[in-house]
Amino acid sequence: MLTARAADGGYVEAAHAVRGVAYACRGCGAPVILHAGRIRPWHFQHRPDAACAFGSRMSEAHLNAQRTLAAALRARGVHVELEAWLPSLDGDRRIDVLAHPAEHTDRRVAIEVQQIDITVEAISARTSSYRTQGVAPLWLRLADFARFDPAGVLAATGEVWIERYAARSWERWWHDQVGALWFYDLSAARLWRGRFVQAFGWREGSEFYEAGGMFQSYPGGYHPVTRWVGLALEGPYTADALRLARGRIQPAGGALSAWFVPPDGTISPWPIRRELRTELRGNYLQDVCELEQCVERRWLPAEIAEVDGPWRLSGTSERRQLAHSRQSSAGPNPPRQTAPPG
Predict the structure, then answer these.
(1) How many other CB atoms are found less than 10 A from the CB of residue 315?
(2) Interatomic CA distance for residues 330 and 342, integer angstroms
(3) Measuring CA to CA, how many Å separate 298 from each of 5, 281, 292, 310?
(4) Helix, coil or strand: residue 176
(5) In DSSP terms, which residues pair with 215 in a beta bridge?
(6) Is the pLDDT higher at 67 or at 224?
(7) What is the pLDDT of residues 198-229, one digit of tens each?
């Protein structure tokens, strides 16, 4: 826990707590222990025999992400409360980061940093609870991008392109709600906006006889894949470079939601326009699965350049310039196409 209750009932963050002072859990009221070491972020913890949902342990990466977001928002004059208590929720009622303009308590935003998997039913219930109380939700995926193997850079936009991303069910649900999913790269402390693209896989044809002797055949071809999606990443951005916005958006049917806005304003307000798609084409010789990108209102084959250097720290504009310089020196790169094997 990053917060606790002081003897006078006030709200105290671990970073400002004092050793030797008694503090209590904001959920159950039981005494908590202040861990004020030099390695992990300062935090409170229940005694080992406690059974309190509010005091469930968070990873060090999760705590660091919360503190980074809170510090960046406060630097902009935004009022922030960590681990805010929302009585209407079942189970763990904490909001990781609750923020609102200092003079507008009615414009609250709940930032939920999600690292472990949750069910679609759970995220749907929490999202509905926030919206019912006028709180705009923003779900942020905490991940380590060091394990990602990017396929390249989309030359037209400089976005990092990852061909296979194993999106979890709750990530797909939130992405479909708002048209994008924001990621927090835990080891680089950077944020990215991600967009999913339908993935397709090749299935070989088959021929067989049923038990009654009836001959059956299924033609081969591409089919939609649910195990992974294509992922286009725009960024990275430091937390202090992003502004927080909220409103009613069309992808969610006009429901209340929140999102980040980068300093260059390249990410437009909602609704987000569809700018990437996967198209299937074929003739009597072969089928082709092709990634297309909308450039100046025209759908064109997406040109993909290789990734060089520390892509997790280099910005979108820098990667776009690199991709264009390679095209001018070596000619246009072929679009990303996948033909059937064999």
Answers:
(1) 16
(2) 29
(3) 57, 18, 10, 31
(4) helix
(5) 209
(6) 67
(7) 988 777 777 777 777 787 776 677 788 888 99
**Are residues 35 and 57 in contact, defined by beta-carbon separation less than 8 angstroms?**
no
Coil vs helix vs strand at 89: coil
Alpha helices by DSSP H, 185-312: none
- For residue 105, what is the enclosing H or E element? none
Asked if 260 and 191 count as a contact pair (C-beta separation under 8 A), the reply is yes
- Segment 151-179 shows an average pLDDT of 91
Angle, nearest 10°, between helix axes 169-178 and 120-132? 40
Sheet (strand 136-143) strand order = 78-85, 94-101, 109-114, 136-143, 181-185, 190-203, 221-237, 160-165, 152-154, 304-305
Contact between residue 11 and residue 3 where contact means Cβ atoms under 8 Å apart: yes
Angle, CA of 45, 50 and 52, to the nearest 5°: 80
For every residue of 177-199, DSSP letters joined together read HHS-EEEEETTTTEEEEEEEEEE
CA distance 183 to 191: 6
Q: How far apart are CA 116 and CA 83, in angstroms?
A: 17
d(CA 105, CA 320): 40
- Distance from C-alpha of 174 to C-alpha of 182, rounded to nearest angstrom: 10
> Is residue 155 a contact partner of residue 305, using CB atoms and an 8 Å limit?
yes
Strands 255-261 and 243-249, sheet pairing: antiparallel
Contact 61, 19 (CB under 8 A): no
* 271 preceded by a cis bond (ω within 30 of 0): yes
For residue 342, pLDDT over 50 is answered with no
DSSP letter, residue 272: P
H or E stretch including 122? helix 120-132
Distance CA 1, CA 17 (A): 12
Residue whose structure tokens are 């569809």? 274
What's the token pair of residue 259? 């999102």
